[in-house]
Write a structure and sequence with these properties.
By secondary structure, the protein is of the alpha+beta class. It folds into two domains: about 10-205, 2-Layer Sandwich (Murine Class I Major Histocompatibility Complex, H2-DB, Chain A, domain 1); about 210-305, Sandwich (Immunoglobulin-like). It contains five helices and 17 strands. The strands form three sheets. An eight-stranded antiparallel sheet has the order 4-3-2-1-5-6-7-8, with helices on one face. A hairpin with a 2-residue loop joins strand 9 and strand 10. Helix 1 (about 10-20) runs antiparallel to helix 2 (about 85-110). The longest helix is centred in the last third of the chain and has 49 residues, at about 305-350.
Length: about 350
Amino acid sequence: MQPPRCCLLLLLLLYLLISGTRADPEGTFTVRLLQTSVFQNTTFVETEGLGLLEDIELGSLDKHTWAIHFYQPWVRPALPRSDWDTIQNMIKIYLQQFNHLINEGAMQKDVPYPFVAQCMAGCTIFSNRTSHAFAYVGYNGQDFLSFNMDNYTWLPSQDTNLSRYVRDVLHNYTAFTELVEVLFNETCVDDTEVLLHYGMAALERQELPVATVFARTPSPAQLLLVCHVTGFYPRPISVAWLRDGQEVPPGPALSTSAILPNADLTYQLRSVLAVAPRDGHSYACRVHHRSLGTRSLLVPWGNSELVLIAGLGAGLLAAVAMAAITALCVWRHRKRRQLEESESRNSILSRDT
């Protein structure tokens, strides 16, 4: 049995997506290629693939036709057009062999169906043109194998009969190791630059964060201050709470969510600070983001309880004032009617006498 080439699709996609001319990138950029294959049984497999430059989706693999669909208009001009048909055919041949070999190995090791095989490979390019390459294999949503780029060996993430078997198979497949070495250590740095050349405008897109601060009271003895920051791009951001102008250090009272994507290709997160009600301190949420430059976004928390009380007081005073005015008007109206009735009676009595 030939060894399963579990990440060859990723390497082919990497070559496909990063071949071309040179540019001069600045900063740190990561190319990631993802593959997910769901083995329902020995005859039915669904495979999907996705290519990413940072968090920008470059293209995906159609699970029905195994064709690559591009999501960014600037990706296709970076491709070697003369090699396009050849690479497409190589991917289809690989997927056919991949499904056959994985199924054969699963039957030999009595792996129960259905199961999911996942691969992630790519490289990070630093500003000094050094790089760090990586490759991982997952099985049923758990870490399974990782590739050591220093000595070109596969390391099991969990010590099982299946992981040792797959590791040994991959080690015996020397062509795969050579391909990894060439693509990641020789090709990745030079050829990733073409994507940066074509996609720099997308990578440099900046959207300002919008922050709101509000409070929740899970119990009378606790007040949760919530800072919701949304609409920002790129992803890196710094959110902190200030107490009387001083940053609140990490601790059990402070929790920040993961950065989550929005539907409009921006991001959001929440930072929550637990405080005692009416503790006498002032609080503000501070946001640092690339789109703000050297400035920061500072959103103070207004004591909503005091504002509410003040609002109720003002409303109560207004109601009392209106009641007093109404009573005065009624009293004056009655007084006037009584005076008119008295004058009317006096006039009648005068005529009678």
